[in-house]
Structure formats: structure tokens, C-alpha cells
Here is the input.
Amino acid sequence: NASYNEIISYDSNSNTSMDTMSLVEAIDDYLFIASKNASSNTILHPTILDNVFNSINISINISSSQSYLMSVNPNNEKIIGAYFNSITYGSPLNQSTNFASIISSSVVAATIDDTYLNSISLLKMLIIYTPNDYLKINDSGKKNLASSIIIADLTSNNKNLSSGIPITLYFTIRYPQNITSNSLFYCSYWEVTNNSWSQDGCNYIGYNQTLATHVCWCNHMTTFALLWLPSSDTDNVQWTVRDYISMAFQALSILCFLGLIIHCIVTCSCFRNNIMDFQPNDLLPLISSGSTMILFIFYLALGITVHQRQDISLSETKCFSTAS
Here is the structure.
């Protein structure tokens, strides 16, 4: 369609006469059309949309039934983010907003820490309610899109904020097919270099019962979504090379400590006629080695147990199974 061609031309710099307002209107038109035509072969690649969105340099606030685009100076009304719901659509979030009520009724939302407001001249967020283009992306890790999409960016004179600032994200499940209680959720962002979803720099905080939403935290700004891994793929969590190396060295440490204990007992027995002749200074290294060996055995058993649990979260698995 025409809006798609305009966006592609703008991204490739072949349409130098197109102003920012026309670009914003083209984005809004395309997202509306794409939301109504899931079977279309036309896909606006996430990297292209991320690029053109980042180029927006004017104040604008456009809300529709399928998207919300905000580019504002956050200091004017102390705006700390944006949200979207299926009734009133998109709107800015400011410090005076009834936060809990807004978030609990939203499909997706994002907020930043208000301590950064004075350093930001433009806070930009684009929410895509029905992201059909993103649903068509095949993820090599078998992860599936579970939520709407939110793209965040900012303009600042502070060079330290060039890659963005930490952002908190709130997602409700938009695509619940086959999601079960033991499915794993991943806070993800679109990696423009590899053209794939990545979890680096993002943490899944968990499901907030009060807000009725999944909460994420990321240390930068880009395109975000909540992904999930089907339960059939989480039943057997795959071990990494680091996990095997960690377990091997722990087992080796246990054998070394066991050998040390046996060596101490045999050595001391050669110089003692009776086991009752053992002195306290003879027992100290045995007690130390024995207690350390027990701790290693406990850690080894804990790591194996974590891998066998089906309802474990990704962060817990990494915490217990990978050597630090």
C-alpha cells in the first residue's frame, strides 16, 4: 500500500522531500491497515520501523484503535511513559496519574524513572496493539509473541543517554494460545544487528497480581515485546556447555576433598597407634574438608534439581546452574 511504500522510501533516503509529520501519518496508516489484514504478504520489517521511528524529531500525539504514537517533551506535564487499552486507546502517563488503576486496565504500558526527565527533550513511544507483522516473524528459539509491541526512544543533549535509559514495561497476554502455567516468559527486545529477538539487558520481573500484568525491566530503549516458550519445550531445559563444565569441576572438587580426607586419615593413622590418640589439630583439616565437600555436594544436587523442575523461571535456572 501507499503508506508502506512511503515508509520504505523514507528509510532508504530515496524520499528526501517527505517531512516528519507525513512520516508519522504513514506509520499510523500502515499499522491500522496491517492490523486488519493478517494474511497480507507485505511485512514492514521491525528494524525499518525502529529506524524511522527513531528519526521523529517533532512533538506529536496520535491515538487510534490499533496504535499510539507519542513524541513529547516530558517536562511540560511530567510525563513518565505511555499506555494503551482497547477502550480509550493510547495516552501519556504522568506522575499525577492513578498509576495502579491505569496499568491494571492497560494492554501494554511503559514507564521511565522521573529522575531522567530534566535530561530529556523528547520522550517517544509507539505502541502497536495488533502487531501482525511481528507475529509472522519466525524465532529460531521457538519463542512466540505473547503481547502487543512497544517501541521507545528519546532525544537528549546528554551523551550518556544516547542509548536510552532504563525502562519498566507492563504486558498483558494478547495471544494466549497454548500458554500454560509452566510456560516460560521472556522480556525481549528487537536486536537490529542480528534481526532477531534478544533478552540481553532485559529481566522478567514476574506476574504482578495486583496490577494483573507481566512486569519487565530493560536497561535500554528499543522495540520490546513479551515472548513465551511453549510448555512442551520447557519440560526439558537444555544444559549449556558452561553448565556441564560447572558440574564437572564441582564433581572434581568433591573427589579432591574426599581424597584429601582419606589421605589425612591414612597419614595420621601411620603416626598414631590408636584412633583415640588423634589431637584436635589433627581433626581440624578433616572437619574443614568434610564440611566444604558437603557444601559442594549440596550445590551440585541443587543445580541438577533446578534443571529437572518444569515450572522454574529462566532467571532461577541461570542463577543456580551456571558457574559464576
User: Anything to note?
Assistant: The first strand starts at residue 60 and ends at 63. The first helix runs from residue 2 to 11. DSSP finds ten helices and 14 strands in the chain.
